[in-house]
Amino acid sequence: MPVPQSRGLISRSLLRENAYQAIRDAIVDGTFAPGERLNDSDLVEWLGVSRTPVREALARLERAGLVQTKPGRYTMVSPLDARAVRAAQSVTSAMHELAVREALPNLSAAELDAMRGANARFADALRRNDADAAIAADDDFHGVPVAACANPAIWNVLEQFTPVLRRLERRRFSSLSGRGSVAQHDRIIALCEAGDVEGAVAATRANWQTLVPLLDIPLPGGDELGGGPAGIASPH
Prior knowledge:
CATH architecture of the largest domain: Up-down Bundle
CATH superfamily of the largest domain: GntR ligand-binding domain-like
Structural class: mainly alpha
Strand content: under 5%
């Protein structure tokens, strides 16, 4: 019988995605520190895959601004860069506002309940000072309208730029400074439930533009996230 042309594509796709997610998460959570060299052979051994998915993952991470490469010389974790974080913040905030605007007219009771559940997990994680769980719950909360709006362009932009912000977000959610976001999330839910599109969009914008203590954390090279006339807002 003829062999289907698509044979093996699913497994290769999963290998690429798994390699990408594993390296991305290790950069975001600080396992791979800013400026650290990434060796292909070490990553291959760690992930248990061939060089191809590792190299494809690194190329994708470079496009996202999480790694830097010098062909034939090295690949390293990108240093924390204030300009890159400001740019990512601006784009990410706009995408979440658009997601709420597009999703709200058709947001179901089940989806509102999912937002409430995510916010409850978020509050619990903050009480336990569990930054990883707080980030996961925060992603789940904001991910509801992103999924509900069914706009793949929004998802693609967020997939690229959110990890840049999450490298700093862990510091914030390890402290008390993130706890005001629980009430902000509740307000977003209430406005969505009331069908107030403009109010919900404004509340989402406020949530993503709240200045937090991490803005004054010095970055390698002497720059600071709090520097400049406008500073940068952290997502939460």
